[in-house]
From TrEMBL:
Record InterPro entries: AhpC/TSA, Thioredoxin-like_sf, Thioredoxin_CS, Thioredoxin_domain, Thioredoxin_ResA/DsbE_sf
Keyword entries, A-Z: Redox-active center
Gene3D superfamilies listed in its UniProt record: Glutaredoxin
Ranges of residues in domain Thioredoxin: 6-141
Organism of provenance: Oceanisphaera marina
Protein name from the UniProt record: Thioredoxin
Keyword check for Membrane: no
Length: 147
């Protein structure tokens, strides 16, 4: 019986993403670092309000940050949107394959993935500085203190 189960465990497609500039990446490219994945849309006011906080997080010594467009926009539209809102984090056009979470039903939604690519936390609604501080204390600061 276990011989039949082994081939089935690797059936999922590798988690990949396409950035606004068309560049392809894999979730495995982020292996070894914390990753914050934020779903946003231009029509979502709370999404736009949290962009400065996500920019600040991206520029810190903390996790990598990806902003994933909830709407299906062209490369040009997405690049224009990123420039208009001064988004400094990579902006993702689409996620494909086997990610450790489903597409959210509400925006904004933010997920935290550990250095092994596993989902460890999520937040639905506008991020506040105290949310990021909580994650920093619980996750990436704790990891950086280990020998």
């Amino acid at each position: 019986m276990s011989a039949l189960l082994l081939p089935l465990t690797g059936c999922g497609d590798k988690a990949s993403l396409t950035l606004a500039d068309g560049q392809q990446q894999q979730l495995s490219d982020y292996r070894g670092q914390w990753l914050v994945v934020n779903y946003f849309a231009e029509w979502c006011a709370p999404c736009l309000r949290e962009i400065p906080l996500l920019n600040e997080l991206q520029q810190s010594d903390g996790p990598a940050v990806l902003a994933v467009s909830f709407d299906q926009l062209s490369e040009t539209e997405l690049q224009s949107l990123a420039a208009r809102y001064e988004m400094t984090m990579p902006v993702v056009m689409k996620l494909e394959g086997d990610w450790p979470f489903d597409t959210p039903n509400a925006l904004p939604t933010t997920m935290v993935l550990d250095p092994d690519g596993k989902l460890v936390d999520s937040h639905q609604g506008e991020l506040k500085p105290q949310d990021v501080t909580r994650w920093q204390t619980a996750y990436w600061d704790k990891t950086s203190q280990q020998p």
